[in-house]
Amino acid sequence: MNMRGARFLLLAGWLATTGLAGEPSDPVAALKRFSDFQQLDLTRLLAGEIATERGALMDFPNGISAQACFVMAVPPAEAARRLRVWDPSPHEALKVYSFHPLPVPCTAKDFQALNFQTNSKPIRWLFDKTVATTPTKSDLNLTRAEAAALAGGIQKQSDARVAADCWSKLLAARAAAFQQKGVAGMVPYEMAGAMMAPAVQLRTMLREEAGVGLEFVPILRKIGLFGNAPDAALPAFYYWSLFDADHHAVLNLGAVYQLAVGEHYQLADIEYYESAELYTAIALYEIWPIQIGGQPGALVWRGDYVTAPMLAFTKGTERLAYGVLMVQEIKKEIRCLLDEAKSRR
To answer: What is the reported pTM?
Structure first.
């Protein structure tokens, strides 16, 4: 471990011990302390504006980040609940084909909604890459054992149902490993390039974003992302989804954790498996109590951290362009969430 990482862990441990991390304070002042938002107009947020910031360029070649801040017209506890279980699939603009909660423990039957029988070009792309997989070569994020299982199960029959069954078994095995072991159950990818460990990439990004990492020490330690002892008493909302990423369909597995820290809440949404295009991602949320016209409301900060193979080949202007696109997509997602909340009133 380098000196920067060592200093980070020592300070994080001290903050967690003394209770300074997450100490109640003015929400806007607390947000400015650790985030990229040094100028924030709460009045504009209360009027419905979504503030965003493109993350600074990272030394880590595969990483990119963005931050957002917005207001929800519900108490913090309700805001946390909604964010934890939100289903984006009804919103066509977000291009999420399927989104499904997963029970504990999960089995292959919990993925029976997966369907490759469609004329959708992105889903057809994933099906074709599945069929083309061999025990030694694949463009998908797989272990060698998973690649062999896909190749042996499909046997070039180009059967959509067989492909879905093979993926159901693969996803169930990965989800079960994560449900049992947490972050330690995130199996490295061995195909589509050099071996890559999603957990290592998440830790690398968050150590580089030291202010954010320190702010979220309470929840990151409990889920085992910092340290190796996850708190079994902190339950997760598990899910799987199928979505469009740059015209390619991607299967993913995720878990959302929630923790009360003093007067506010922290959430961590870990996408611990991505079938292609991405390696892994985490969205962190901090939710503070505020007043909206004399009624309880919530100020929400969101930070997204994504690792993807193509980012290693981007520099300068091109990397900045990816950051702008990421901000646009996050803002679109938040707008859908807020519009959905308004329609419920």
So the answer is: 0.90
